[in-house]
Design brief:
Strand content: over 45%
Helix content: under 10%
Strand order of the largest sheet: 6-5-4-3-2-1-13-12-11-10-9-8-7
Structural class: mainly beta
Number of strands: 13
Radius of gyration: 17 Å
Length: 255
């Protein structure tokens, strides 16, 4: 069982427990294959903060399940009114050569829209996360380099860079990974000109039933001075959820 997307990551970019003798690729695969809850649900709060400090708060509820060859996540926006009942679903596949499938349901249109590969660099619902950020990324898509072992926020970390093999949204990412928690504490994202674009900071990680769960994180766009904070609450795991919950029909039906 793998990581939960957007508990971020979430989400997003992590490397596992390994000795310093192991390669960066081996470290990447240890986290890619690390154990997480087989399923569950939680509430989420997404706070959008512009460069002037003004905030917009959005409430969500998410479900997730690990079926071995595919991991599925379904999120519903519950507030405010302008985004209520909007739903997003992501299917991540174990096969390295198979890209994630993503869908967005917009209640005003009463239609489920598939997110195409060409649109995955778009912002997700006005946040600083793109659709691509919400995918589970196979280590086979990147070249990895372990640059050093150091400390960050009082924890021993590996500093690992990942450069995509094919041209993509980011020219590279650099992650500071906790050796104890097997979780990134910080990730830097660089744009196609190799300029620093965004920084993801994981601020709260809690151990629940022997799983390290990311509860608080912040993505900051350095170039626009815009931030997105995500807080996870009311997590319930190993609920024996039905695979049938993760469907386009369920997106339209709502909570």
């Amino acid at each position: 069982m793998k990581k939960i997307t957007l508990i971020i990551t979430v989400f997003l970019f992590a490397f596992g427990n390994a000795s310093t003798a192991q390669t960066a690729k081996e470290i990447a695969y240890k986290v890619y294959n690390k154990e997480t809850p087989k399923d569950g649900e939680s509430d989420m709060t997404m706070t959008l903060i512009n460069k002037k400090g003004s905030k917009r708060v959005r409430k969500l509820h998410q479900f997730f399940i690990d079926l071995g060859e595919v991991e599925k996540q379904l999120m519903f926006f519950t507030a405010p009114a302008d985004v209520k009942n909007t739903a997003f679903m992501n299917w991540s596949y174990t096969a390295a050569d198979k890209n994630d499938d993503q869908w967005l349901y917009l209640p005003a249109l009463k239609k489920v829209k598939r997110i195409s590969s060409s649109n995955k660099d778009n912002d997700f619902m006005g946040s600083d996360f793109t659709y691509e950020d919400m995918e589970k990324r196979s280590p086979e898509r990147d070249e990895h380099k372990l640059s050093e072992t150091t400390t960050y926020n009082g924890e021993l970390v590996w500093v690992v860079s990942a450069t995509p093999i094919e041209e993509e949204q980011y020219s590279k990412k650099i992650a500071w990974i906790s050796q104890e928690k097997n979780t990134p504490l910080k990730i830097e994202f660089y744009d196609e000109d190799e300029e620093l674009l965004k920084i993801l900071k994981i601020t709260t990680i809690t151990k629940i039933n022997n799983y390290w769960i990311v509860q608080d994180q912040e993505m900051e766009n350095i170039q626009t001075k815009h931030k997105t904070q995500i807080n996870l609450t009311n997590l319930v795991i190993d609920k024996n959820l039905s695979e049938g919950k993760f469907s386009q029909r369920a997106m339209q039906k709502g909570l």
